Amino acid sequence: MKNSVEDFATLSLVEKSQKLCENGAVKCVVEHVFDGSRLRCLVTDPAMTSDGLIYGSFTLIIAGVSSPRVGNPKSNVESEPFADEARQFVEVRLLNRELRISLHGTDKSETCAVGTVHHPKGNIAVELLKRGLGRVTDWTVRLMNPMDVPALRVAENNAKRTNLKVWHDYEPPKLSGAAEIQGTVVEILTGDTVLILPDGETFDDDSKLKKVSLASVRCPRLGNERTGKPDEPYAFECKERLRSLTIGKSVR
């Protein structure tokens, strides 16, 4: 083995795999399953040979899902509910198999890669969510191809509705206040949130405005000049698109 785990460049692997590997997916063998959404993978793709990345091991966070964590008996940390079931589900399907993995990015520390495992029978993340063995993780979803996200949301929502596994005690949120608002859009806060002045109200104070967010969507967030936080990609475009569609119009 050329590479040691300690000095393995995960970010470099992500970048090289997207450029050099077939369809941007690197061929790997799943060596170990930590829990339902974290794997240890060994790079076996010949395309990685010239860059010295072949036979290097790295930790993979499966994009779009977070499964319950498995405990550690040595430190007296117990497994979270359904953690062992989630790990076993993944082990049966992925362990010791050579599969292609699309790497989307890394975690903040650039230690773990984030990616989608391409299994002949489908997306393992969707299967975990469908069975209530995990929850959608927004930060990894933002790294994915947007076309792959709806299947994750649908699978999670179905598990919620039927109270499967990790959702066994889930109750839909109860809406407080008016169930329906009719008024005029007076301000756009983000690509998915607006301020509405209800019909019959005269604007003389911000308390008269109703803040409404669009259901089932999260647009990129605008930055913060005070803290130096930049806009997320396409945040301005999303806000402007919503503004052109709704500002000054009567909505319900």
Describe it.
The protein has six helices and ten strands. It is of the alpha+beta class and about 250 residues long. The strands form two sheets. A five-stranded mixed β-barrel has the order 1-2-3-5-4. A four-stranded antiparallel beta sheet has the order 9-8-7-10. Helix 3 (about 125-130) packs parallel to helix 5. The longest helix is centred in the middle third of the chain and has 13 residues, at about 150-160. The chain is globular, with a radius of gyration of 22 Å. The termini are far apart.
Task: Give me the secondary-structure topology.
Layout: H1 10-20, E1 25-35, E2 38-43, E3 57-62, H2 83-94, E4 98-106, E5 113-119, E6 122-123, H3 124-130, H4 138-141, H5 149-161, E7 183-190, E8 193-198, E9 210-213, H6 235-246, E10 250-251
Parallel strand pairs: 3-5
Antiparallel strand pairs: 1-2, 1-4, 2-3, 4-5, 5-6, 7-8, 7-10, 8-9
Helix pairs in contact: 3-5
Features:
252 residues; alpha+beta; 6 helices; 24% strand
Quick take:
By secondary structure, this protein is of the alpha+beta class. 23% of the residues lie in helices and 24% in strands.
Quaternary state reads single chain
Biggest sheet details: 5 strands, mixed, barrel
Proportion of residues in helical segments:
10-25%
How much of the polypeptide forms β-strand, as a percent range? 15-25%
- Kindly name the structural category: alpha+beta
Average pLDDT works out at: 90
Could you give the count of β-strands?
A: 10
Instruction: Please report the number of helical segments.
Output: 6
Order of helices and strands: HEEEHEEEHHHEEEHE
Q: Unreliable runs, pLDDT <50, ≥5 residues? A: 1-6
Strand order of the largest sheet: 1-2-3-5-4
Terminal CA distance: 63 Å
Global morphology: globular
Rg calc: 22 Å
